[in-house]
Hints:
There is one protein chain. The chain is of the alpha+beta class. It has a single domain (38-145), classed as PAS domain (Beta-Lactamase). Helix content is 25%, strand content 28%. The protein is built from five helices and six strands; from the N terminus they run ααββαβαβββα. The protein has helices spanning 15-24, 29-35, 54-60, 91-98, 146-152; strands at residues 39-44, 49-52, 76-78, 102-110, 116-127, 133-141. Strand 4 and strand 5 form a beta hairpin. The protein is globular and about 45 Å long. The N and C termini lie far apart (38 Å). Residues 1-13 have low confidence and may be disordered.
Amino acid sequence: MKKDSVTTPVTALPFNLFDQELSENGIGCHTMLEAFPAAAYICDMDGHVRIFNHLAIHLFGRMPATGTDKWCMSLKTFSPSGKLLQPEEFPVACTIQQQRPYAGKAIIIEKPDGSRRMLEVNTSLLYNHRHQPVAVMCVARPPLTSSDWLATSV
């Protein structure tokens, strides 16, 4: 096969250069979280909530105290059976302790108005350029029901 401009692979920018380009254009972590189509927040490695998007504020029913709130944006967090979770049992805490992501973990949150809601949470470690974990991202959403799946099927 003859090489030409169409078949020659394009070399992507190394991630750190792309990250620098985004940053220079005012696109930081908070901007990306706001564009994310789900409730999301980021905790530092001590578990403090540092960054969150407007969907997280809506889902959890409150604005967290940045740098004070730990592990989750809810006032109270429960297991699916209704047991109040201890701080070390929160998905973000488990991610930090075990140095691995969690997918599809079910929790129940209590909102400031006293209402409770089941959520599905997914956590991921975020790494620096030296491949050291520096934060945990948590994405939360109400669990999908079978009718949700049917409504979205093509």
